[in-house]
């Protein structure tokens, strides 16, 4: 698939996605970014980790900004988790720290899997 067609497909996917699908897409990309950063650090390429960790930080900030803490009882705790995760991603990036990056990957993977499960439950309830 050429770049133009791929970009058109991605833009269409985002504009037609439900809020739950958008959240899953963000979490999938977050996990991919942190995984790529960890892989780069493992292979001794800290410069390659930097853009992935920066993008991961941006995603976490977007997740935090879109969280409405007045709608859901657990939102304040999730906001704290996002804040902590962002802090750890920044620290991992500044220090090019593989252990910190892998720790963030564990958090992100768990978060992604939890959101997938929640979205699946919502879909099952609406069917």
UniProtKB/TrEMBL annotation:
Source species, domain of life: Bacteria
Compartments it resides in: Cytoplasm, Cytosol
Alphabetic keyword roster: Bacterial flagellum biogenesis, Cell projection, Chaperone, Cilium, Cytoplasm, Flagellum
Pfam families: FliS (PF02561)
Gene3D superfamilies (UniProt xref): Flagellar protein FliS (1.20.120.340)
Similarity-based family: Belongs to the FliS family.
NCBIfam families for this protein: fliS
Protein name stated in the entry: Flagellar export chaperone FliS
Organism: Nocardioides mangrovi
Gene it is expressed from: fliS
